[in-house]
Amino acid sequence: MLKEEQEPVELEINVDTVRWLIEKAREFDEKVAPAAPHSGSNASDDNASEILEDYPDDATGQELRVAIDRLNEDEVVDLIALTWVGRGDFERATWEEARALARERHRPRSARYLMGIPNLGDCLEEGLAELGYTAEG
Q1: Would 127 disulfide with which of 56, 82, 88, 115, CB 3.0-4.6 Å?
Q2: d(C-alpha 114, C-alpha 97), whole Å
Q3: Per-residue model confidence (pLDDT) at position 15
Q4: How many Cβ atoms sit within 10 Å of the Cβ of residue 45?
Q5: Buried (b) or exposed (e) across 97-134, using 16+ Cβ within 10 A?
Q6: Taking 60 as the threshold, does the pLDDT of residue 37 lie above it?
Q7: Rounded to whole angstroms, how far apart are CA atoms 61 and 26?
Q8: How far from 47 is each of 19, 26, 55, 59, 115, CA to CA, in Å?
Q9: d(CA 22, CA 35)
Q10: Contact indicator for 86, 126 with CB cutoff of 8 Å
Q11: Integer Cα distance of 128 and 134 in angstroms
């Protein structure tokens, strides 16, 4: 059964900002723990997987954290609520409830909370879709 076309839900966060955060969250999600060097491996490709490895000085996580930290309170609340909608905790009909709970639970460490969700990019994309937006800009 197809959903009937509805106007997108009004957000406090710019949809293009969410789209950019989806990209960054997916880059961050792809990071893995650094692998130990393999003895006897081919020296020409020893560091080929380094781009996917998560090092403390890696800019991907820092960039995502700084971007979330720079959002105002209303934007962070919507980002958290979008995440919850995207993972199925809430739906379009309960958007205001999700937003109210996110406002109640919002803390200064929201970036840490959001970045701890392993599929944050997917949740945000699904949340946008549920509220009438596409993840493509």
Answers
A1: 82
A2: 19
A3: 97
A4: 8
A5: ebbebbeeebeeebbebbbebeebbbbbbbbbebbbbe
A6: no
A7: 10
A8: 30, 21, 13, 17, 26
A9: 26
A10: yes
A11: 6
Q: Are 53 and 33 in contact (CB under 8 A)?
A: yes
Give tens-digit pLDDT for 76-132: 999 999 999 999 999 999 999 999 999 999 888 999 999 999 999 999 999 999 999
Q: What's the token pair of residue 71?
A: 């959002």
Look up residue 75 and give its DSSP letter: H
Residue 43: pLDDT band (50, 70, 90) is: low
Please count the other Cβ atoms lying within 10 Å of the Cβ belonging to residue 27: 18
Under 8 Å between Cβ of 18 and 126: no
Residue 53 pairs with which residues in a beta bridge? 32
Number of other CB atoms surrounding residue 71 within 10 Å: 19
Per-residue pLDDT for 42 more than 60? no
Torsions phi, psi for 87 (to 5 deg): -95, 0
pTM: 0.78
